[in-house]
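queue> holo job accepted (flavin mononucleotide)
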Amino acid sequence: MSESFSGDEYRELLRRYPTGVTVVSTSLNGRDYGATMNSFTTVSMNPPLVAVFIIKGSRTLDAIGKSRKFVVSLLSGNQEDAAVGFSRDGDEDKFLKFSRGVTSDGIAYLKDSIGRIECDLYMEEDIADHAMIIGRVTAGIIHNQNTSMVYYRRKFETTGK
Ligand SMILES: Cc1cc2nc3c(=O)[nH]c(=O)nc-3n(C[C@H](O)[C@H](O)[C@H](O)COP(=O)(O)O)c2cc1C
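queue> job finished
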């Protein structure tokens, strides 16, 4: 760590890195789980793998470990209510307030998102206070042609056309 390293400056720097916004979800024993995640990234095309980094203690993380399946819904620019709703802590079923679709595997996803990536759990690895979740993509489906959501400096923005 350099002498000039400041945690506050580092956090402020990271806020200036724009990301997309997703809701990562799964279903287990008749219940749906989901959380807003911007740590999503693609890993490989051959085989098709994606990653998301989830904080330990997340209900969604716990459920994915058991169901071994999850869906990444990519949010559109007008889904701020979902981005905020799915980032809430608590035990309520977050899907109750939103339009929910279900994959052929029985996993819930956000119907109004721009598209979804269906995954089987490929690898789960503990990393500090997070878990790295790697998914083997089984389907990638476009729902609509809406603009995409961007998270930048703690605000939800939208891409151009
Ligand atoms: C824009 C945004 C991005 C987020 N990205 C992540 C992420 O990548 N990983 C993570 O663990 N939490 C992330 N969160 C926080 C989770 O959404 C939050 O902890 C949520 O309450 C977890 O819900 P759960 O316990 O029902 O799974 C993010 C929140 C926001 C608002």
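queue> DSSP finds three helices and twelve strands in the chain.
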